[in-house]
Amino acid sequence: ACEIVLRQIELFGNISCLQIAANADDKLFVSHSCCVQALNNIWYDKLYPDQSKKRNRAALFIGFLSLGVLAPVLVEYRKESEETKHKVLQAKLESHGINYYDSYPLEYPRITKYLGFNRYCHQLINFHLSLPTKYTYHCVQYCFFLLLFSYTLLFKFEPPTNNTPSIYWTEILTIILVSCMLIEEIHFFCNGDSLTFFGKVSSYFKHFFKQMSAVAFVLFYIGLILRFAYANSAENFNVARIIMAYDLEIWWLRSMSFIVVVPFLGPHLVAIGKMLKDLTFFMFIIAIVMIAYGVTSRSMAYYPNPELNGYDINFDGRGIFRQIIYPVYYFMYGNMGNETTYLDGYPDEGWSIATHVLLAFHMLFVNILLINLLIAMFSKRFDQVYDDTKTIWHYQSYLFTREYFDRPPFFPPISLFYNLYYLGRLFYSWVRRLRSKKSVDSHAKVFKIIPIRKEKEKTWYEFEGASSYEYAHMEIKASGSDSSKKNVNEDSSSVSIKVDHEKSKEDSNSAGKILEKVQEEINDMKKDVQSLLGFLPQRKRPNN
Question: pLDDT tens digit string along 508-527?
Fold first, then answer.
């Protein structure tokens, strides 16, 4: 069943059922036990799929620490089935597709004539090709990048002077890492399941962390350009520093994508995303209320009396935000500033009394009504996500598995050459398809099972047909039992009616029999009367 879910179907354009369900956002299908097992098999690939035991987890951890050197000795791999154990090992599936249950790559091609060392080398390679290893290496690389970027902005991001160089090696390494990650994202974008450009854009940007990645890349290169273009003065250099600082904030927030793999933490990210949508609606209401109070209170108490409060009454953007928006915004957190102090200094003034009344209604509306409304909305969203925790997490697991399936098992800058090679192949196949109308690269890495022999497809069709027939038979049988159960109440309620009907039928039958007997007796009486009438004339004739 897992193979059927992952195999390519010509009727659907050579894509799998799982890909169709994921693109259609069908979370119920993706969370089915068959799809969950298939994703688990893809995740561990040639490793043994059940790694829930502590011994297996410890072996994986030691394998990560040793960079895979001890993995062939400690980690448990998939085993051959008993049916094929004594047969000549042959490849069953194409190597550029999903081939987790094919044991051929663990033995062939032969690297050396020593079978033990040959198997060790293939197990070492397949350990690094497994998705847990890619995930671990990516986490280490990303943590190193965050620490390096943070160190650069804190201590080594300065304008060039006579005593300091124009750029430090830490900043150069940061630029290299960001460029490698950009090429990697471009590779992931081009290798998407959609065939059209707009389809790839839609499937890429519908995920929140991919949107964050795009914004982070744009801000980084804008800050990098400004870092060299406006390095003549410290004031102009601060523009690049501010943009880089905001970019670093996004990179740190993007690291939350790594907790998707944790079952009890991943769905909470979905809850946060839904809460952000509610918060956007709430911010519009808060902005209207804040501006209403800020403009009204300043028009009564502050701007008409600049000699009393020392307010800047210049009509510009900075003055409006500094004197109207900022102070009123912090009222939500209980920070009143000098608002009440200034009003209490003139308790008998009409504008002070009116502003006090307005402030009381503003605090009542914002801090009690709107804040509690926001809490209720967040609680409702969390309850909705909590009810569908497993469904959401399984769908996130698909997205995570799909991403790491195409990710290279290397650290930068080696991964840069890997991604550039595959991007070159994609570009070459695209140009070839445009010029000669030939098919795309037939050996490009794809997220589906492709059998080498047609007999495998025939086996799949037979299994699918038998399963469909059994399912239809069970459905018909279940519907028949349901209909019989539904008729139980009707039968029980009509028992008395049937009994009465049978009794009336028996009574009518007995009455009919009585009528038949009466009719027979009447007929006998008629015969006797006729015989008597026939006898009387014969007695009268002699007297005449």
Answer: 555 556 556 656 665 665 56
* Phi-psi domain of 418 (left: phi exceeds 0; alpha: psi -120 through 50; beta: other): alpha
- Which residues neighbour 445 within 8 Å (Cβ) at sequence distance 6 or greater? 96, 97, 191, 405, 406, 422
Helix axes 169-190, 131-155, angle to 10 degrees: 140
- DSSP code for 163: S
Model pTM? 0.77
- The answer to whether residues 367 and 331 touch, using CB atoms and an 8 Å cutoff, is yes
Q: Which amino acid is at 469?
A: Y
Tokens at residue 523, please?
């007929």
Residue 455 has which token pair?
A: 């007999």
CB environment 481-515: b (16+ within 10 A), e (fewer): eeeeeeeeeeeeeeeeeeeeeeeeeeeeeeeeeee
Is the CB of residue 404 less than 8 Å from the CB of residue 187? no
Q: Chunked in runs of 10, what are the mean pLDDT values of the chain (544 residues)?
A: 82 80 85 88 88 86 90 85 60 82 78 82 89 91 94 86 74 93 90 80 86 94 88 79 94 89 77 82 87 85 63 68 82 79 78 86 86 85 76 85 87 82 83 71 78 80 79 76 54 48 52 58 58 44 37
User: ∠ CA(311), CA(313), CA(314), 5° rounding?
Assistant: 135
Cα 339 to Cα 327: distance, rounded to the nearest angstrom: 8
pLDDT given for residue 430 in this prediction:
80
Cα separation, 82 vs 532, whole angstroms? 105
Structure tokens at 199: 């389809």
Report how far apart, in Å, the C-alpha atoms of 482 and of each of 343, 486, 492, 506 are.
Answer: 75, 6, 16, 34
* Cα 296 versus chain centre, distance: 46
Whether residue 109 is preceded by a cis peptide bond, meaning omega within 30 degrees of 0, is yes
Phi, psi of 100 (to 5 degrees): -65, -30
The answer to whether 501 and 509 are in contact (CB under 8 A) is: no
What secondary structure letter does DSSP report for 111?
Answer: S
- pLDDT, tens digit, 9 for 90 and up, residues 161-206: 666 667 888 999 999 999 999 999 998 888 877 778 888 888 888 8
Question: Is the bond into 413 cis (omega within 30 degrees of 0)?
Answer: yes
CA distance 464 to 475: 16
Q: How far apart are CA 286 and CA 282, in angstroms?
A: 6
